[in-house]
Write a structure and sequence with these properties.
By secondary structure, this protein is of the alpha+beta class. Helices cover 21% and strands 22% of the residues. The chain has one domain: HIT-like (HIT family, subunit A). It binds adenosine monophosphate.
């Protein structure tokens, strides 16, 4: 989608600090990090929210999780948090599905 920031990052049209990419996913550092490690994993396919997934995305969702572990380990994080905000009231501000990998500091629960 031309007006989607994360589509433009995934395509390379918009800049980001990319740490990983493959045919299905791109990972890049969050511009406003919540910890020493804060990486976003996005599918190349535009999916607005977690609630918009369909059964045909099942393999993609598994892949995104494996990419999350790969980039966390590559950043030296064995312990980390994986988070997805679904909808504005949950804190979602960019409506292209993304997984947050946050680590490198003690993380409280529940999050705010
Ligand atoms: P969410 O609030 O769950 O939708 O997460 C969106 C995240 O995208 C936030 O943590 C932002 O800091 C981050 N973000 C917004 N614009 C950019 C950008 N251009 N490059 C990297 N991260 C971004």
């Amino acid at each position: 989608m031309a007006d989607c920031l994360f589509c433009r990052i995934a395509s390379g049209e918009a800049r980001a600090d990319r740490v990983y990419e493959d045919d299905f996913a791109v990972a890049f550092r969050d511009i406003n990090p919540a910890g020493p490690t804060h990486i976003l994993i996005v599918p190349r396919k535009h999916i607005a929210t977690l609630a918009d997934l369909t059964p045909e995305d099942d393999a993609l969702v598994g892949h995104l999780h494996r990419v999350a572990v790969t980039v966390a380990h590559a950043d030296g994080r064995r312990d980390f948090r994986l988070a997805v905000n679904c909808g504005a009231d949950a804190g979602q501000s960019v409506f292209h599905l993304h997984l947050h990998v946050i680590g490198g500091r003690p993380l409280a629960w529940p999050p705010g």
